[in-house]
Amino acid sequence: MNIIALYGSPRKKGNSAVLTNAFLSKAEELGAKTSRFSLNAMNFKGCQACMGCKTKKDHCILKDDLSQVLDTIHDSDVLVLATPVYFGDMTAQMKMFFDRTYSFFVPDFMTNPKPSRLKPGKQAVFIQTQGQDDPSFFNDIYPKYEFFLNAMGFKNNILIRACGVDEPGEIEKNDLIMAQAVDAAQKVMG
Q: Using an 8 Å Cβ cutoff, are 150 and 119 in contact?
């Protein structure tokens, strides 16, 4: 099992990172090979709407630090997307990555029964943390992005969501959510 994890937070020890590390530690214990990328530490641009991935190449034509990440996703079985909620959505770093996944779609994706260039059978784990303790706030984030993950061919996706965690590392006091991260790794590893 090949798992790639993308950290969307600028906080290296933030709550989404803590949950991701718990998930990855358990997955590694169960035999997974993992790759970790901190988007905030990378130099890359968002999608430039150049359409090069639809007219010139079968991948994103931009050459920057995200190129390796996009290539690695092609070879992965599981993609972990970890983001805190910043100003009502995923972080800008994660959104810039997500926009670049447009390159995973074939040119005629709107009408093609196989819209994705990715091999089928991949799974996504979406880790969302937020300072707001009311779960009705920002509960629209995951469904919005899951729609695109499903279109890319990711199936049986898992959401791990923690509300009311604001200070970095605060999540470690929430045994229930920490256990969800470990349980998700066990589920993914089968």
A: no
pTM for this prediction: 0.97
- Cβ partners under 8 Å of residue 43, min gap 6: 64, 65
Beta strands in the chain (DSSP E): 2-7, 33-38, 78-84, 123-130, 158-163
User: What domains appear along the chain, each with residue ranges and CATH number?
Assistant: 2-189 (3.40.50.360)
Strands 123-130 and 78-84: parallel
Q: What is the pLDDT of residues 45-94, one digit of tens each?
A: 999 999 999 999 999 999 999 999 999 999 999 999 999 999 999 999 99
CA distances, 190 to each of 30, 140, 153 (Å): 9, 29, 19
